């Protein structure tokens, strides 16, 4: 599903965030991306949904070379990719139902389809009873559940999560991981950048370690491998 070929990314300030990355990630995999702060993890995942554009090299997502993708085609690429952020990025003036429905409204789904899909995904993340509440009325864990629901309501082939448990307490973090596990079991590829050593060591998946913009380790069922 994801292929990176000799990918480099150098920012205008001279920082090299990707330094010759070569990687392949198959459909349905669950991959942790780990490494120290400033190692290039965020750039690594941002390049997958074209928030960051590589300086050179190729990134192919589901057969599409996104480096040469025309700007007007980028929104169509992102419709097939769900993104979950550490700080949730919810629309504060919309309630839970409306935040999730918005992802379908922008692609002009029918009202009946929106209603069905939103209700289904809110049930999956355990928020059916809070559909009419606003983000300020929710806990951090509940807000992250809304963010996850919004990212998967369009049934994407790939979900990218950037430190999704970073602002959450340990108990809530485990609850969020159960949701990601369920999404993965349904066939969705998950790429998760994380500093959570306990989660990586307990729920074993493939681990890609990034340091100095390079892949320094890539192992299936690996551990976190850094002091936290």
TrEMBL record:
It is a peripheral membrane protein. GO terms for biological process: cell division. Homodimer. Forms a membrane-associated complex with FtsX. Residues 2-228 form the ABC transporter domain. Keywords: ATP-binding, Cell cycle, Cell division, Cell membrane, Membrane, Nucleotide-binding. Part of the ABC transporter FtsEX involved in cellular division. It comes from the Bacteria. This is Cell division ATP-binding protein FtsE. It is found in: Cell membrane. Belongs to the ABC transporter superfamily. The keyword Cell membrane applies. GO terms for molecular function: ATP binding.
């Amino acid at each position: 599903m994801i292929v990176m070929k000799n990918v480099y990314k150098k920012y205008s300030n001279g920082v090299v965030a990707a330094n010759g990355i070569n990687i392949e990630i198959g459909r349905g995999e669950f991959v942790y991306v780990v490494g120290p702060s400033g190692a290039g993890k965020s750039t690594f995942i941002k390049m997958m949904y074209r928030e960051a554009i590589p300086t050179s090299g190729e990134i192919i997502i589901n057969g599409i070379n996104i480096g040469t993708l025309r700007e007007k085609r980028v929104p169509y690429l992102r419709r097939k990719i769900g993104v979950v952020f550490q700080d949730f990025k919810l629309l504060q003036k919309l309630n839970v139902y409306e935040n999730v429905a918005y992802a379908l409204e922008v692609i002009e789904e029918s009202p009946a389809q929106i209603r069905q899909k939103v209700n289904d995904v809110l049930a999956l993340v355990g928020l059916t009873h809070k559909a009419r509440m606003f983000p300020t009325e929710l806990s951090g864990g509940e807000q992250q559940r809304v963010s996850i629901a919004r990212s998967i309501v369009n049934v994407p082939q790939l979900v990218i999560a950037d430190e999704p448990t970073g602002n959450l307490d340990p108990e809530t973090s485990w609850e969020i991981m159960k949701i990601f596990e369920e999404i993965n079991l349904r066939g969705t590829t998950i790429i998760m950048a994380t500093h959570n050593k306990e989660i990586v060591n307990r729920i074993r998946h493939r681990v890609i370690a990034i340091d100095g913009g390079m892949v320094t380790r890539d192992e299936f069922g690996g551990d976190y491998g850094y002091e936290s």
